[in-house]
Input
Amino acid sequence: MGKSTIIPFGPQHPVLPEPIHLDLVLEDEKVVEAIPQIGYVHRGLEKLVEKKEWPEMVFVIERVCGICSFGHGWGYCMSVEGNLGVEVPPRAQYLRTIWHELSRIQSHLLWLGLIADAFGFESLFMHSWRLRETAVEIFEDTTGARTTFSVCKVGGLRRDIENEKLAEIVKKLRDKEAELRELTSVFLDDNSVKKRLVGIGALTKEDVIELGAVGPVARASGVSNDVRLDGHGVYNELGFEPCVEEEGDSYARCKVRVREIFQSIDLIERAVAAIPDGDIAIEIKGVHPAGEFLARLEQPRGEAYYYTKGSGEKFLERVRVRTPSNANVPALVKMLQGCDLADVPILTLTIDPCISCVER
Amino acid sequence: MSIKKSPWIIHYDCSSCNGCDIEMLACLTPMYDLERFGIVNTGNPKHADVFIVTGTVNTQNIPVVKQIYNQMPNPKVVIAVGICAATGGIFRGCYNVVGGLDHVIPVDMYVPGCAARPEAIIDGIMKSIDILAEKQAALDEGVVPEEICGGYIYEGEHDEHGTLITDEDADAAEEEQDVGATPDQEEQE
Output
């Protein structure tokens, strides 16, 4: 073995659009240790709770991350609603679930594009992002914004979607399904793609449990960890089953996400078929949250939780968000030990890192 | 004027929420396709003409932005994409946020929006290319680069971890030094 070398990876590098810094300790071409250094996206937004009233705070929490922004807003609203002890109308629950699953489709297609870019398949990256625009167009059509659309408010939603529009959304997604199958078959069946993914960065079931990984990373190693099983939103009514794979390598993580894209389309179709008519929000006046509440939510990247503590004032005492990427960083460090230097970008991406979620 | 036909961009996420970053990437993909204007995204600051910064600037990022900016060859333009890069946006008032890119480096173009729309980003880049061409023309006439591209204007200091040294820290350090100052240190001062 040669002597060890340290290669700094980041914060500005072409693989990820986001800044993360890793010190990679190498012996020849093998990574022996990876030391993450974070803090490039830390804004300290939880502290803003002292300056923004609790109904306004939802806009701040939505900006924890722009990719899964709807889920963050929903999680915070769920937490405050639990704190106030109010029930959201069923139509709002269905619509929230629909938007959340659309966010998952958008996020997973974004990830497929980035991983294709990481293994050097640029046309695949372009096609993934082209298809991602389908979901983004639906957001724009229904809310007026493409990424951060602020439709969630405490007590319900700001906007309704008409039933005809809902049917159109399902038709639009079903129309794209053939193209999606064609795209994802490249990820799952193409020989050169498989060479880069199969057997790379394998984590056993025990590893995943010990490191506390969540979301697709855990599900790819055979752990059926999905908060949607607890039935937030209307997942119980929709008959949800998590996608679980056993191998635990990068290919399995890719497969879980690909399966989830199609599962989300099915869930949206079932939700649209069952959605009841009615109000989309209840009025909350003259009360402030007093007490503690912890809400859990399955984001595209895994389990996230939202803790709020109020004291009966218009400002909450504390908001805490634990995001899935945060839980997956130890799994990444474990995967990087013993890998080839050339696989570092792929492994970094297979946890679907969202640095602005990690650091907030 | 070749620089107008193929400006290369470099993008840095300066503690953004990802909203503007994915819109920035969406600009490069088939729906919006910036490459039709000859614009290529590069990861190397020495290849780049246009520096695109998204997100509000936090204290740890200041040295990184400064480093990328200083490495870019002249002429260069800086675009602040999104309301966070312009003023700090919703995060203005957070303890770790400087509040606007123009506190750190000179900015030529602001693209508003939260998140900035791809059309707006493309418009911003196209307009900044005219500024780039003007700067190139001025350089050709013999103007000193410092006059048109500005320098690093942020005046705060950082410790070795990149953390901003605030006035309070500096006062505390001075007091400490006053207490236990050795003759050597006094000479240095």
Notes: The radius of gyration of chain A is 21 Å. Chain A touches chain B at residues 11-14, 17-19, 39-45, 47-48, 51, 59-60, 63-67, 69, 110, 113, 125-127, 129-130, 133, 136, 145-148, 354, 356, 359 (CB under 8 Å). The longest strand of chain A covers residues 290-299.
